[in-house]
Each structure stands twice: as structure tokens, then as C-alpha cells.
Design brief:
The chain is an alpha+beta fold. Helices cover 43% and strands 22% of the residues.
């Protein structure tokens, strides 16, 4: 069961991280596509997938996340957790907030 406050929590995180806009993402051609991979740095348990995905969805419905690890699974250092593909500007804007949720939850 997903927490009811995901949308609100993600909105607050994006407002804090992006403020009135993402200057770096504004420099990217809006037609440019990008692919990224999230890799673990330490051993742990993966937690925060719904929040990570909500960040991506709020910034662009065209961002696609493909998980290699399930929520609650044990992870090891240097393990690929997910691949993300979509508009470069949205992906760059999502990076900080999405990763913060995975790191802190």
C-alpha cells in the first residue's frame, strides 16, 4: 500500500530543489533524449521506488523508469538499480530529488 502523501511530499521536494526553475536543464535542447543509470554505492535495502517514480512523473510523463531491483530487496555496492530514459531536461531536473528519496528512505 502506497503512502497517501507521496504527491505532496514530492511537490515539496521539487519546490525546494528546483525553486523557480532548473537553470542547468534550461540550457538543454527540449527535444534531446537522455538515458541514465542509477547505481548503488553501498550495501543496503532499496526503499523509495514510489517516491522516485513520482518525481519523474511530476516532471514529465515521458520519463520511463525500468527497475532492476524490487522495493525492499537487499542491494550491494555497484549494483545497477534502475535505468531512466526520456527528455533530457526533465531527467536532469529529477535527479537530485529522486536520488534524495532513495538515499534517505
Amino acid at each position: 500500500m502506497l503512502p497517501a502523501d507521496i504527491t505532496e511530499s514530492v511537490q515539496r521536494a521539487l519546490a525546494e530543489d528546483l525553486g523557480s526553475g532548473d537553470l542547468s536543464a534550461a540550457l538543454v535542447d527540449p527535444r534531446q533524449e537522455l538515458q541514465a543509470r542509477v547505481i548503488s554505492r553501498e550495501a543496503g535495502v532499496l526503499c523509495g521506488q514510489p517516491y522516485f517514480e513520482a518525481v519523474c512523473i511530476q516532471l514529465s510523463a515521458d520519463l520511463r523508469v525500468n527497475w532492476n531491483v524490487s522495493e525492499g530487496a537487499e542491494i550491494v555496492p555497484n549494483q545497477p538499480l534502475c535505468d531512466i530514459r526520456g527528455p533530457a531536461a526533465a531527467l536532469l531536473s529529477a535527479e537530485r530529488s529522486a536520488l534524495n528519496f532513495l538515499q534517505l528512505l
